[in-house]
Amino acid sequence: MRPTSRCRPVTTLASEVTAASIRAAHAGLEGVAVRSRLLPLPLPGGAEFFLKCEQDQPVGAFKIRGAWTALSRLPEAARRAGVVTHSSGNHAQAIAFAASRLGIPAVIVMPEDAPRIKVEGVRRHGGEIIFVAHRSERDPRCRAVARERGLTIVPPYEHADVIAGQGTVALEVLEQCPGLRTILVPVGGGGLLAGTAAWLASAAPAVRIIGVEPAGAPKWSAALRAGRPVPVPEPHSIADGLLPPALGDLPFSVIGGTVKDAVQVADDDIRGAVRYLYREHGLVIEPSGAITTAALLAGLVDVDGPTVAVASGGNIDPDSLQSLVN
User: Fold this and answer.
1) pLDDT(6) > 50
2) Quick check: is 219 catalytic?
3) Residue 314 in contact with residue 289, Cβ under 8 Å?
């Protein structure tokens, strides 16, 4: 089995997430990921922000960026043996999609309560699913499968190449909005936040980066207070993609001191943002992706100059969408 990020020092891995690695990842995504839209939207009172529409991606979420980057950089022997990951949804779909395109066998460990649309996406792209009863069982089962089958683990955020791939979102945002003052990033395990921090620290260090998380799963806020990732007891939210119990060690190390702001958003505000984006603009955005818009609509962030909210994905079951927008 190829060594995973768990087998190497975090500081060593963090040093690999460079501007050069992110730029190379962006070049490698040509013909795979799309350059998603930067859509101007109004705020109550007349201010305007821009939505980075990652629901435009072929798997409906930004996760394809990190998944493709990690799999495409694997040595040939690891590709032949196959990969395994654990995920509740969007990373799972992205790994299955990328593996299918690259001819790599892929095993996905998912919880039994994973959203149906995300389970169907994994199956559609040919991934083998192993279900576990609870989210807490995903990682140990993933590691067990890797040992048993000789597979390479490609985790959702504890991986330097995954983080480099996610950093391409910020690269595009800065090209699309050169005067960027503030960017709002959804926070689950921290891969997207870390990639954003790594790129902007090099390319535009004056830009304010705000990590946006569910009020019921404030792992970024907890990490900021403690100076290290700490677990949040019983994380809960309708934003199912943002429920890891703690920020990843590697993302925290990559972020360093470059991101100092955290905003917590209540589920009611997230529901309102899903409804607003759908009713007013015809956009289907899942709760995890709508959380940054929710922070703006709820007045939790002052808009002072060009502001971008990353909509990380749009994979939501039709029934769930209807219950939120009606």
Assistant:
1) no
2) no
3) yes
Catalytic residue among 36, 87, 88, 221: 88
pLDDT on residue 92:
94
HSE-up (13 A, CA, CB side) for residue 138: 26
Task: Decide if 117 is inside a domain.
Answer: yes
Residues 201, 273 within the same domain: yes
Q: How far apart are CA 172 and CA 141, in angstroms?
A: 36
Flag whether 143 is in a domain: yes
Active-site position among 63, 72, 221, 288: 63
Residues 199, 187: Cα–Cα separation, whole Å: 16
Catalytic site includes residue 100: no
| Domain membership flag for residue 319 | yes
- Judge whether 82 lies within some domain: yes
Give the pTM. Answer: 0.94
Domain count of the fold of the chain: 2
Owning domain of residue 258: 9-61+161-325
Q: Can you give the pLDDT at residue 7?
A: 55
State the CATH number of the domain containing residue 196. 3.40.50.1100
Contact status, residue 224 vs residue 206, Cβ threshold 8 Å: no
Give the residue from 258, 287, 262 showing the smallest Cα distance to 273.
Answer: 287
Convert 177-190 to b/e letters by CB count within 10 Å (16 or more is b): beebebbbbbbbbb
Show the tokens assigned to 98. 């990328």
